[in-house]
Design a protein that fits this description.
about 280 residues; Rossmann fold; 7 strands; 8 helices; alpha/beta; about 45% helix; Sc_DH/Rdtase_CS
């Protein structure tokens, strides 16, 4: 898949942030869209805007992919509408911010359900259809956090490590099938990831979602298995984590996150965690 014009692309988490940016960039390149998100109002707003700006054909599906039957209900809806997906963009993701014990257990479990379980289910359900047609592609949105353990983002980074390993394995399994699989590893991006928490990143240190989306699609068209759509220095950091001992990278990551105040981060209105 080197061109996007005329394909049907499904984007999860499409109601805001990076998912919305993927939707807009795919529409700009001529794709038909199936946009999926949990928030119906926000999803319809994005769909209407994309239709108006690009004249794109857009279908929306409201779905809670973290729910046990979320993916199966979505796939059934696609089958009822006789929609075949050419490109799956597994973008939906979530993560608890701050000390592990500072967030309720369900926040961590929800992250695992969405970032790992739903992504795996969708890749299996739609990937199987693609392989049967000998055509298609899957982009799994991971993160530069996938390359090392990250204290104060412990669950999130661990789920993204799964996405990295899973994607590289699928890319090899599907080689020669007509279906390509790629992981995208953005760094800090201007999205709502920290929304509702006391944590924040300075805009000067974040990438624009529009830039990340465009670079991701360029890399996929070029045949990459891993894409690094953020600023250049972040890719160098991922190389370093493959060379240095994991204990070293974990300690360095912990120091950096403490410097960012993530050891004190918590949901707005929740008790302030004790320093560790």
């Amino acid at each position: 898949m080197t061109r996007y014009s005329g394909i049907t692309a499904l984007v999860t988490g499409a109601s805001k942030g990076l998912g919305e940016a993927y939707a807009r960039e795919l529409a700009r390149r001529g794709a038909r869209l199936v946009l999926v998100a949990r928030s119906g109002d926000a999803l319809r707003r994005v769909a209407d805007s994309v239709r108006e700006e690009y004249g794109a054909e857009v279908t929306t599906e409201v779905a809670d992919l973290a729910a046990p039957d979320g993916v199966s209900r979505l796939v059934a809806a696609l089958d009822r509408r006789d929609i075949a997906i050419d490109l799956l963009v597994n973008n939906a993701g979530a993560g608890a911010v701050g000390p592990f014990l500072g967030s309720p257990q369900n926040r961590h479990i929800d992250s695992v359900e969405l970032n790992i379980v739903a992504l795996t289910r969708l890749s299996h359900a739609l990937g199987g259809k693609m392989v049967a047609r000998s055509s298609g592609g899957i982009i799994n949105v991971a993160s530069t956090a996938a390359f090392q353990a990250m204290p104060y983002l412990a669950t999130y980074a661990a789920t993204k490590a799964y996405v990295l390993s899973f994607t590289e394995a699928l890319a090899e399994e599907f080689r020669g099938s007509g279906v390509r699989v790629m992981a995208a590893h953005p760094g800090p991006t201007t999205t709502s990831f920290f929304e509702g928490t006391t944590a924040a990143l300075k805009p000067a240190f974040t990438d624009r979602p529009e830039t990340v989306a465009a670079r991701t699609l360029d890399a996929f068209a070029e045949g990459a298995v891993n894409a690094y759509p953020g600023r250049t220095g972040l890719r160098a950091i991922t190389w370093a984590t493959r060379i240095l001992p994991r204990t070293t990278t974990t300690r360095v990551s912990g120091r950096l996150n403490r410097a960012l105040g993530l050891d004190r981060a918590h949901d707005i209105g929740a008790p302030v965690p004790e320093p560790s």
